[in-house]
Design a protein that fits this description.
The chain has 259 residues and is of the alpha/beta class. It contains eight helices and seven strands.
């Protein structure tokens, strides 16, 4: 896929597996928020959803799987059910429920095609820009999700498609944080819950030092304060309910502002 930017790093052999190991080891020791804590935060959104849930970036599915377990609910994936979320083509009739082609969908990655499309479980749509990362997520989550390879700044879904949105550890990586926040707001239903975790320039000295070093080689964005992130979310139309720092990680929850 052209224009992958930093996501191209994850296409290298063994990088997704190394990323898994890094997350398990450093989440608590360096960043100050464990994988289990992040999963419980995500579970509050995933478990309460009554319709499709957007997970972007899904990464390797490590936090997502734990969130599904913590929520006590099983999500479902189905190619047929994904159609209702996809974006209408410019030539389609106004108001059509239908939908354009899936953008860069990973070959063979849509899980649960044999599951009933009318399943009562909420549809979980797992999005990432890296095909290698999505393949690892698919091995971990199986038919509990459908998998879409897409850029968060240009999501291939119709407006107001999702009943809940979770974005874990993405905003310190997204090249265009404002565009990403706008897309989360666009694809969420009015007043639907949104949960976001991301690094900040606050908290532990070691985490801030590591983040600055990574930013120097353009592996992550320049460190941003919690206030900067919160302002970006607000300008995109996301209404804050709570914002807390766990170590260096901002845990932000809110809702898509009503129309």
């Amino acid at each position: 896929m052209p224009g992958m930017g930093r996501a191209a790093n994850f296409e290298r052999p063994f990088v997704p597996a190394l990323y898994d190991l890094d997350v398990r080891v450093t989440s608590r020791l360096v960043w100050g928020t464990s994988v289990a804590e992040q999963a419980r935060f995500a579970a509050a959104v995933i478990g309460g959803a009554t319709g499709p849930v957007l997970e972007v970036p899904v990464g390797t599915g490590l936090v997502t799987r734990k969130a599904l377990r913590a929520s006590g609910r099983r999500s479902a994936g189905s190619a047929a059910r994904l159609a209702g979320c996809r974006e209408r083509r410019s030539g389609d009739p106004e108001g059509a429920a239908g939908v354009g082609a899936p953008v860069h969908r990973l070959s063979g990655a849509v899980g649960g095609v044999r599951r009933a499309a009318a399943s009562d479980a909420p549809l979980l749509v797992a999005v990432d820009l890296s095909a290698a990362v999505l393949r690892r997520a698919r091995r971990r989550l199986g038919d509990q999700a459908v998998y879409v390879r897409a850029d968060v700044a240009h999501l291939p879904f119709r407006a107001e498609a999702f009943h809940a949105v979770h974005s874990g550890n993405g905003f310190h990586l997204f090249p265009e944080p404002a565009a990403a926040a706008t897309e989360l707001a666009r694809t969420a239903r009015p007043d639907s819950p949104v949960a976001i975790t991301t690094w900040t320039d606050q908290g532990r000295w070691l985490a801030r030092r590591v983040q600055r070093l990574l930013a120097r080689v353009d592996a992550v964005n320049r460190p941003r304060s919690a206030a900067e992130h919160i302002r970006t979310f607000a300008e995109a139309g996301l209404r804050q309910q709570s914002a807390q720092l766990g170590g260096t990680v901002l845990r932000w929850s809110g809702r898509r502002a009503p129309n």
